[in-house]
Amino acid sequence: MSEVHPYIVVGSGCTGAMAAQTLVEAGVNVLMLDAGNTDDTYEKLIPEKDFTSIRQTEEAQSDYLLGKKFESISWANIGSGSQLTPPRKYMVKEVEKFLEIASQTFFPVESLAYGGLGNGWGLGSCVFTDKELEAAGLDASKMKAAYQTVANRIGISGAQDDITAYTTAHLSNIMPPAPVDSNQEQLRTNYNRKKQWFAQNNFFLGRTALALITKDKDHRKAYQPKDLDFYSDKDQSAYRPWITVNELKKKSNFSYKGGIIVKQFKQLENGDVEIITWNKAKNEEEIFRTQKLVLAPGVLGTARIVLRSFPEENQTLPLLCNPYAYFPCINVSQLGKTFERNTSGFAQLSLFHDNNMQGDDIAMASLYSYKSLMLFRIIKEAPVNFRDGISLMNFLMPAFVIMGLFHPEKSGGRKSLSLRKDTTKISGDSLQAEYLLSGLEKQKITDRNSLFKKAMSKLGAYPVKMIDPGMGSSIHYSGVLPFEKQEKPFSLSPDGKLHGTKNIFVADGSGFRFLPAKGLTLSLMANAHNVAQNALKQN
Amino acid sequence: MQPEIYFRYLSRKNPDARSLELYSAAIAHHQLEFSKKENRLHKLSQRFPFLIPFIDAGLALTQPLSPYRKNIYIILCILETQPQYFPLLSSSMNEKSKQTFLSFFFHGIRAAFTGVFGVILVKLA
Ligand SMILES: Cc1cc2nc3c(=O)[nH]c(=O)nc-3n(C[C@H](O)[C@H](O)[C@H](O)COP(=O)(O)OP(=O)(O)OC[C@H]3O[C@@H](n4cnc5c(N)ncnc54)[C@H](O)[C@@H]3O)c2cc1C
Predict the structure, then answer these.
(1) Mean pLDDT, to the nearest integer, of A128-156?
(2) What whole-number distance in Å separates Cα of residue B13 and Cα of residue B84?
C-alpha cells in the first residue's frame, strides 16, 4: 500500500496555494496533487519590451498575439474568454476532456492549470462587508484576520477613497495604486464634479483594489505598466498562485505532484482517506492515502469529486454564480485622442451601488480601458465593412470604457448540479448543470443594469450596447456544499469540514451561501487559510 | 484562393512574403468553405476589386459570419500583427497620428452608404 501522507491538498489555484502555505508554515508535511498544466510555448517568446514597442518592431509578434495555431482568431462574439490570449490559453487546456459539463444554460470557465484560474484572473480584490460575510456563512472576525494574512502574502494595491469600505476596508499594508490613464481620469473628474448625484443614488466610484504590487516585494518586482497584462507575468507584480507554489517547492515539508486528475475519495475505517486519481502521463489509475484531505480543485471540481464519492445518494447540489454582463461605453471626451504609451489592462476604477446603504445588497462594476486586446477582437462587432471599420475603431478605441457589471447572487430560481453516468467520457460521467434565474431575479438585474447605465452616462461614458456572455461567465462560483452549522449531508461545517466525514476539508468557495457582487477571490483565499488552520487544529 | 486583392483592399499595398506565409498557415487552421454564392462574390471581387468594400459591407449587415468575410478578417488579424502595418492599423496607438472628427464622419457616412449598396449587390449576386 502507498505511503500515508499527513496532508494532501488538491489543486494549486488561489485557494489550494493559500491552504498549502498555511499548512507548510505550520510545519506539517504536505503533498499537493494537481492537474498542473503549464505554458511551454508562449511566455519565453514574449520579449522584454512594452506592448507598443513590440507592435512597432517585432516580426514574430503574431506568434503570441494571434497564437501559433492562430487560436485568437475566433468568430465568437467578444465574451468572457476574450481575455484568454494565446499565452493564457493553457489555463483551459484539457478542460473539455477531463471536466465534462453538459448544460444548455450554464457555461462556466474551469482550469486544469498549475495555478488554476489565478493565471489569468483580473486581480480585483475586495473584502466582504460584515453583512455579506454573515450571509455567506463566514465568521466575520476570523475572516478579518485572514484577509490581513492573505493581503500580506500576496500584496494588494489600492487607494483611500469613496469605495475603500467595499474594497480594502480595514486592511493595512496596502500599496499605492498604479497610475490611472487619462480615459479613466476623466471619469473620476466627472464623478467628483457630480458627487452629489452619485451619493444621492448610492453610487460610489474609486480605484479598484488589485492583487498587484506597486513596490518590490521579496523577489517580485513593482508593477511597471507596459500593456502586457494579458500576455506576460515576467516581473511577477501580478499575484499568480504559482508564485506561492514555486516558493513552497523550496521547503522540505512540501512536495508537488502534477499530471494527476483526482476522481474521488474513500474514507477508510481508521479515518484515513484514500484518493483515487488518474495519472495522465501513465494513463492509469493511481491511489494516494492521507490522514487529512484538503480539497481545492475549484467549486465545480469539488462538486464532481464529492458527487462521485457518494454515488449512491444520486444527489443534486445547489449552485451560485454572479450574473454578469459587459457594457462597452464611449467616453466622449476621449474621442479621437491617441492612446498614452504604457497603460494598464487591469480594471482601474470600480463603481459600487449600495442599494439600501446597508452593505447587504451591493452591485459592482469594474471599468477597463480597451487597448492591448487589440482592434481585431472588437472590429467584428461593428456592422460595417472592415476597411472603414479600421478607421472608425481607431477613432473610438481610446474612448472605450468597458464596464463589467456583477450582480449579487443568492439561492433562488433553478440552479443546480448533478452527475450523470457517461461511459463515453474518460471520467465515466458528466456534470449536468442547470442555471435559470427566477422572474424576480431577472427583473432586479434589468433594473440595476439601467441604474448603472445611467450612472455611466453621468460619468460621461455612454453605454452603446450590452453584451451578455451567458450564465457562468462571471467565473465566480460557489454554494455547492453550503455551510451548515448542523450535521447535514452534502454541506460543510463552518470550519470547512465536509459533514459526515472526519478528515475531509474543502478550501475553495463551495461553502459560500451567498455571492456578493465583488471579486470573490480574496475572500476565497482568506477562507482557504482559515480552513487549513481548522484542519491543523482538528488532530 | 488568391488573397492578394483582399490584402490590397485593407492595406492598399501588395502583401509581403511573410504576410502571405502567415495567411496560408492561418487558412490551414481555419478552413473556410465558400458557398456557391460566395464563390460568385469572390470571382466578382477578382474582376472588380473596387466592389470588395460593398460586398464586405453588404455581408456585414446580412451575413456577418460568412466565410467571405472571415477570409478578410483573417487577413486583417495578420496585418494587425505585422510591424510594417502598425501606422495603418493602429493609428490610435501612434502618438504622431491625428484622428479627426471629420475623418470619423467621413468614414461613418461612407460605411453607411457602402452598406446600403452592398446589401443590394449581395442580394443580386
Ligand atoms: C479572466 C478571469 C478574470 C478573473 N478576474 C477576477 C477578479 O478580478 N477578481 C476575482 O476575485 N476573481 C477573478 N476571477 C476568478 C478567480 O480566478 C477565481 O475565483 C479563482 O482563481 C478560483 O480559485 P480556486 O483555487 O478556487 O480554483 P481554480 O483556480 O479553478 O483552481 C483549481 C486547481 O485545481 C486543479 N484541479 C481542478 N480539478 C482537478 C482534479 N480533478 N484533479 C486535480 N487537480 C484539479 C487545477 O489544475 C487548479 O490548479 C477571474 C477569473 C478569470 C478566468
Answers:
(1) 97
(2) 11
